[in-house]
Amino acid sequence: MSATTQTPTAPDSRTTPPSKLTTLLGDRRLPVLVTATLFLAMYIAGLSRYQNYGFGEPQVFLNLFIDNGYLLVAAVGATFVILSGGIDLSIGSVIGFTTMFTAWLVERQGVSLPLAVLLALGVGAFGGFLMGYVIHNFEIQPFIVTLAGLFLFRGLCLVISKESISISDSSVSSLAQTRVSLGLGELSIGAIAALVVIGVAFYVLHYTRFGRRVYAIGGNEQSAMLMGLPQGRTKIAVYTVSGFCSALAGLLFMLYIQSGDPLHAVGMELDAIAATVIGGTLLTGGSGYVIGTLFGVLVLGLIKSIIQFEGTLSSWWTKIATGVLLCAFILIQRAMTARKQT
Amino acid sequence: MAEPRPVLEMTGIVKEFPGVRALSGVDFRLFPGEIHALMGENGAGKSTMIKVLTGVYSLDGGTITLDGKSVRFASPLQAQQAGINTVYQEVNLCPNLSVAENIFIGREPTRFGRIQWKRMRKEAAELVDRLGLDIDVTAPLSAYPLAVQQLVAIVRSVSTGDGDGEGQGTKVLVLDEPTSSLDRDEVLELFRLMRRLKDDGVAILFVSHFLDQIYEICDRMTVLRNGTLVGEHMVSDLDQVGLIQLMIGKELDKLEELHEHQLRADVGETLLHAEGLGRTGGIAPFDLEIKKGEVVGLAGLLGSGRTELARLLFGADQPDSGKVTVDDKQVPMNAPNDAIGAGVAFCSENRKAEGLVPDLTVRENIILALQAARGWTRPIPAAQRDELVAKYIKALDIRPANPEARVGQLSGGNQQKVLLARWLITQPKLLILDEPTRGIDIGAKAEIQKLVVSLSEDGMSVLYIAAELEEVLRLSHTIGVLRDRKLVARLTNGPEITPSRILETIASGEHQ
Q1: What residues contact B309, with CB distance under 8 A and at least 6 apart?
Q2: How high is the mean pLDDT of chain B?
């Protein structure tokens, strides 16, 4: 008969708690901490170097939110997608399209602003939904589908108009100039909207079933399916969220720039993805925090500010610094996941 | 015990894959409060049957009746909602989430749509406690070894329907090879749980390759062969020999043959010699000599360093100390390529993750190592390649004998054979087999063991790792005993060596 001896194993070996170092290195919050520390270090370095140029003003800090609100919103969308194990390359095009579409509706068609905003958000979300639908139902790589989305929305910009449309609508400019005082300084509507989006995203990801499904799918899609989670619906929803966030980012961008242009936000999806990764979200999915994304955006924004304060540096140094950071953070991620496997 | 009406009835089940008819008209019934074994060789259709039942695969023909109502599940979720829960052979949970979340995800306790984390953790801890397990439910699942993850999967599936009143409670629990990664204590734990669920009237479908376990826990069994129903029997009416004959479909001489098989008596000169080879955190420095045509078995508990030793010999992990000589020449062993160059081949225990490429065809998988050894600039001529592949498919009896079939669709035993074929085709001097028979059925097991004997006759050396001591004893000339990541003894096989003798050696941890 077949030998059916069960090899006895030391029963206590399986319940030994992991050592402290492993716990620390395996802690999924570590990358967020690293990014936050980096931000703090950069800020302190900036303080000591540009103290006499007003770097210490609270408004300089608040300007990070004002100048990067749209990127923050776009990066939140990217975070959802990357957490689920996917990627969205259409973000920049959807932003560009939204600026054009809204400007065209308001300026050329005389549509009222609230209606134009609703339409723009609807179109963005629907675009994301379509991409998610195609990704799920035809089992196509998200990279390819959203690349198609990238071209499609950029093309649609040019269908609307080949030239930029500046916005003279008075409600837009008054909205753009509205500042909410915080005592120490002030925030724009766009910055506040971005902070609200961060808060909502945090709540959704951690306190709703949908949010946990996003993590589950990113961790192991096959398992999520076998656990009876509606992985198709979740995936489609994730891309819809990203489309919605992109459209909202487009509106904030339009508010910030006050024009629609077919070439607005070219390549911004890459900034959003970079901010997400620098914020500690694993590109393989399943691990990361939207708070990390916030710090990722702040770090990128701070690099821009510092280069402005430096004065003599070309703005291309922003890109170089981003590239170096991205590289470093991907290496950290790699070290962490490698540690986990052994 | 069996009530007049089965809770689940499957009739005329048909499932086809491109080129393979996995199930042709299988009938199956399951009564409440029974533990029912689904038996069959690898590739007989057990896994397919389970996946059809649980909504992973769609049905190509036949009907499923649950509680007298005809049902058809389009997804595992629907099956779950109807009360059919499954624990699969591979742990299907999300390693990035906490244990508590893995137990509750999809049905987390919520209030106005907000997940109540505290309540969820508390309930998870209670569940785990009730089942007598010592697991921190807030830790991420990946912090625990596979065996514990498996237990968590079982906790999850038996707890479905508890708590928030969604779902209908578990009517049918499907356990697909849950014991393959559990140790004896954990198996007993599981059995205790199964008996309790059975008393509660849950129908349990149990799949295991350990026949003793089937006879210990099951009431009734259904036997499949090549995708067709062979018969349904009460366990008490059919003895193990009868069962194996049903499964294999021919008289069972294979295993007997093997028992009587004489090991090749004369082994040649030294092929491989490891001196002081070791790796911190892997295995303490050891000396090991493998002669030409010799089968060296490694015995030891799970986690005693068997696999780590093998990985060092293959260069999959870099040694901190020591050296390896093959044919009197020192080999650096810094990467698998060095080992392959020296004629060492390694069949991983983890055939899915570390060996086969499931999306490639049988032919491509078989040819992979040979092509790698030749280098990519010298492709193997198509005719020669096809001939080689056909030869090994035949020699190892890989089913289906179709070189174009995708490896992912083959059964576990046949996947193992494909992996073996890949390495045999390179004609290695030393073949390292790490748990080649785990999770495969008795027929394929016997074939693989026979193959090891015949390879040794042909002068190939084999390093054989298996959890079952009888298996190691049956095949090996020399047995290396490992304990606590250390090679503690080397025994020359002979009549006086018995499994209990080896166990004593493991227990005492001393050289004899």
Answers
A1: B283, B286, B288, B298, B480, B482, B487
A2: 82
Provide the domain count of chain A: 1
Using DSSP's 3-state secondary structure scheme, residue B62 falls into strand
Q: What pLDDT does A5 receive?
A: 39
Which of A247, A285, A286 has its CA nearest to residue A73?
A247
Q: Which helix (H) or strand (E) holds B376?
A: none
- State how many domains chain B has: 3
Averaged pLDDT, B394-401: 81
Q: Which domain holds residue B480?
A: 253-343+429-512
Is residue B331 within 8 angstroms of chain A, CB to CB?
no
The residue among B249, B268, B286 that closes a domain is B249
Helices A30-49 and A316-341 sit at what angle, rounded to 10 degrees? 150
Task: Evaluate whether residue A101 is within a structural domain.
Answer: yes
CA distances for B203 relative to A64, B66, B207, B211, B311, angstroms: 61, 12, 13, 20, 43
Q: Token pair 């020591």 is at which residue?
A: B322
* Closest alpha carbon to B482 in B299, B297, B286: B299
Cβ atoms of B156 and B103 closer than 8 Å: yes
Selecting from A207, A215, A229 the residue whose C-beta is nearest the C-beta of B106 gives A229
HSE toward the beta carbon, residue B507, CA cutoff 13 A: 8
Beta partners for A302? none
pLDDT band at A9 (very low <50, low <70, confident <90, very high): very low
- Nearest residue, CB atoms, B301 vs list A2, A8, A207: A8
CA distance B90 to B379: 36
* Phi, psi of B427, rounded to the nearest 5 degrees: 50, 60
Q: B293-311: per-residue pLDDT in tens?
A: 889 999 877 667 888 888 8
B264 and B242, same structural domain? no
Q: Could you say which residues from 43 to 82 on chain B have a Cβ atom under 8 Å away from some Cβ of chain A? A: 56, 75-77, 79-81
Nearest residue on chain B to A16, alpha-carbon basis: B144
Question: Domain of A110?
Answer: 62-265+282-288
Kind plus residue range of the DSSP H or E element containing B328: none
Among B501, B463, B493, which Cα is nearest to B477's?
A: B493
Q: Which residues of A touch B213 (CB under 8 A)?
A: 4
The number of beta carbons lying within 10 Å of the beta carbon of residue A144 is: 12
Tell me which residue of B427, B429, B473 sits closest to B268, measured CA to CA. B429
Residue B244 has pLDDT above 90, yes or no: no
B77 and B188 in one domain?
yes
| Six-digit token string for B308 | 């780590």
Does B148 sit within 8 Å of A228, measured CB to CB? Answer: no
Q: Is the pLDDT of residue B134 over 90?
A: no
Whether the pLDDT of residue B145 is over 90: the answer is: no
A273 class by beta-carbon count within 10 Å (0-12 exposed, 13-18 middle, 19+ buried) = buried
Pairing of strands B461-465, B295-299: parallel
CA distance B189 to B155: 12
Chain A partners within 8 Å of B115 (Cβ)? 206-209, 212
Closest CA to A68 of A329, A217, A263, A252: A252
Closest chain B residue to A212, measured at CA: B105
Interchain proximity B97–A215, CB inside 8 Å:
yes
Structural domain includes residue B361: yes
**CA B144, CA B467: separation in Å to the nearest integer?**
21
